[in-house]
Every structure is written in C-alpha cells, then in structure tokens.
Amino acid sequence: MNLQLEIERIFGGKAFARPLFYSYPGGLRFELSESGGEIEQFLTALRKSTKICSDIFLDDATLVACLRIHSGSNRFAHRPVIYALRSAGINIPTECSVWSEEIDQEEWFCESDPEYWINIAFEAPATLLQAFLWCALARDFAAIQPKPNCVLYLFNLKKRVMVFPYDDRGMDVVGPNKNMLSQLYRQHHTYLLDYDRHTMDTTFAGPTR
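Predicted structure:
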C-alpha cells in the first residue's frame, strides 16, 4: 500500500496542514499536560493521550505512523531521529513510504538554502502506541529521553481518523469518521481544550437552547 496516497485520499490533502484543528474543521482538540514540574506534566500528558488513543486504536493490531523531519541541505537529517526511535523500541520497516515536500520559502531559516519536510510513513504494531506518544510528547522536555527531533502523526486508516499530538499541551484528532469523533467527544469530554470547547460543542452537541 502506498501510504502517502492513502493519507492524502482519506484526509483530503489536509493531514499535515497546521494548525490541524483549524485546517480540518469538525475535529477535536484535547488538553494534555497540567500544572506541576516537568516530569509530572509529561506523565499527565502521556496518561491522557494514551487513554484517548487506546479508544481510537481499540481492537486494531496495527497503526500507521508518519514522521515529518525538517531538513535543509543535509540529506541525512533523518538519521538521528531513527536512532532515537530505536532506543524507544520503534524500528522503521523496510516497507515504508518516503517522500519530501519543499517548505514555503518564507519559512526557511536561511534564504539561500531550500528546506524540506522528509516524510516517512510506515505500519507498526498497535502495542507500540505509548512508545510513539512518548516520543511525540517529549520534544519540549529537556529531561525526558528518548526524544526524536521530528513531528509525529498517528493514523487509523481503516477507521479514517488521525491523531496529532503536537506537544505536551495538546493533541488534535480529526478525520471524516464523524461517528467515531462524536464517540470520543462524549467519552473524553473532560479532556477537551476549554479554549475551543464552544466550537466542538457546536459540532458534536448542537447549539444550546
């Protein structure tokens, strides 16, 4: 299966748009970390995201992960990411989809050197869910390792839902499967981000009378 084409087909080419919650209307945005020290914040974010994602990948043997790695002229920018993933017990299989996208010139760090997103999408056992979430949420914590320097997305292509844990503060869940999103809205209502709660309530609970 060409995972790049499947992701683009199911999510209408919007899977990697940022910010995802606003670029793909009708989704969910969850608040993860709370007050406390770094370790407490990280563990709270990991606990909440694991609980939510366990329902998304319930009864599934596999999931699809996609790594997005920022790269300039260095063709090997992805290597440290792969090493960090291995230390978390995650190995990228030989059968994977790899593609690159040129970053808008206005977002380059150096005006003279083109910059790209290197994308690596692959299937992995669903038992590695928490390991993937650990890697995604550890990015902004100096004391937490392993910490791959990449953006990470998780997909349930069969159920047409995707997860973007953008950092320890929050996680977006979007997709065309409105029934599953509505179920997640009800099951994890207390975790919804208050700032965007009205938008989600309007979508999934209907206007208040």
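Summary: The helical segments are 3-10, 20-23, 38-56, 79-87, 129-137, 178-187, 197-204.
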